[in-house]
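sorry for the late reply, my laptop died twice this morning and i had to redo everyting from scratch. anyway the thing you sent over, i finally got around to it. pasting the sequence first so we're on the same page, its 265 residues, then the predicted structure underneath. double check i copied it right bc i was rushing
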Amino acid sequence: TLSSRRLDLIQKINSIDARIRTGKCDLSTKTCEIYAWCPIEVDHLKYSYPILQDAKNFTLLIKNSIQFPKFKYRKRNIANVSSDFLKSCRYNPNNPMSKLCPIFTIDSIINATGYSFDSIAYLGGVVAIVIQWNCNLDFDDNTCLPQYSFQRLDNPNVTLSPGYNFRFPIYYQIDNLQYRTLTKAYGIRFIFIVFGQAGKFNVVPLLLNLGSGLALLSVATVLCDVIVLYFIRGRMYYYGHKYEIVEEADEESELFIQHAESKSH
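ok and here's the structure:
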C-alpha cells in the first residue's frame, strides 16, 4: 500500500540523516520533507584567497601580569616607558629597545611561526603565543623580562576540516516568520601560554642542603664498609687492611717487657 511504501522510504532516509522529519514524502522524486532552515548551508568558499588581506597590518597589544607569591614579587610585560614610545613602537626581538614593546603586528606573529599570513588566513588556524619568565631576583628588576615565542598548533596538511572556523547565527522575524542568517567565519585564533620560574638566594636552604649532603656522605661510608666487609669475595683482604688485630699479652711477655724497661732505666 501507499502508507507502507511511504513508511519504508522514511525509515530508509532516517538511517542516513538524523534531522527532524515531517512525515510528508514525494514518491516520484523519492524525497521526504524535513523540518530545517532553508536553504541548506553551502559549505564551500567563494573566493580562493583571504578577503581581509589588510588584517595582517592590525596590531595586538598584549598585557600580561605575573606574580611569585613566595617572594612577594609582581611584574607586568609593559615596561615603565613613556606613552609616546608605546604609541609608535612595534615588537622586534633583534632590537634591545623594541623587544620590550608589547605591541605586535599580526603579520609579524604569523611570520614568526614559519608560515605566511595568506596561507593561514585563508582557512584559518590556531597560533600559540608563549610568554616565558625566568627571573633571578638577586639582580636588578630590569633583568626580569618576558621572552616571546610563537608556534602554529593546528596541522595545515590535514584534508578533513583543515584550519580554524566557527559558525554563528543571527535570528530575526519578518511578518511573523522567523529567519536566520548563518555565517561560517574563518579566522586566526590566538592562545596564550604563560609560564616561568623565579629564584632568590637564602642562607637557610643552603645550610639545610649542606647538612643533608654531609649526612649522606657519612651514611655512604658506612654503607660501603658493610657491602665490602660482608658481601664481596675479597672481604677478608679488605678486613685485614682496614683493621689491626691486637692480642692480649701473656704473663711471660709482660715479664719480658718489664725486664727490658728496667734495663733501659
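DSSP finds seven helices and eleven strands in the chain.
thats about all i looked at so far, will dig more tmrw
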